[in-house]
Write a structure and sequence with these properties.
about 80 residues, 4 strands, 2 helices, alpha+beta
């Protein structure tokens, strides 16, 4: 059975966007600083291609993950890359 990775595009008050992905194992990865929603969506398409190559399915989640405040997490942690 293929594993799934869920993602969401998070908007920030400064107008930028971040793509946040969570694996089935519970690890969370993100990329911040997209100036437009279109840039964030292009990142998602690249992520979808990578996940397909790994045998994983990328699924969009519309609601927050249980017990996870994505906006607070992104404010508190330094982005892994910019």
């Amino acid at each position: 059975m293929a594993r799934s990775v869920t993602y969401s595009i998070v908007d920030h008050p400064d107008g930028r966007f971040a793509v946040v992905a969570a694996s089935a194992a519970g690890s969370v990865h993100w990329r911040c600083g997209f100036l437009t929603l279109a840039e964030a969506e292009r990142c998602v398409e690249d992520l979808r291609a990578i996940m397909a190559a790994c045998g994983a399915v990328l699924v969009r989640w519309e609601a927050e993950l249980p017990d996870t405040d994505l906006r607070a997490m992104l404010r508190a942690l330094r982005p892994p890359f910019q």
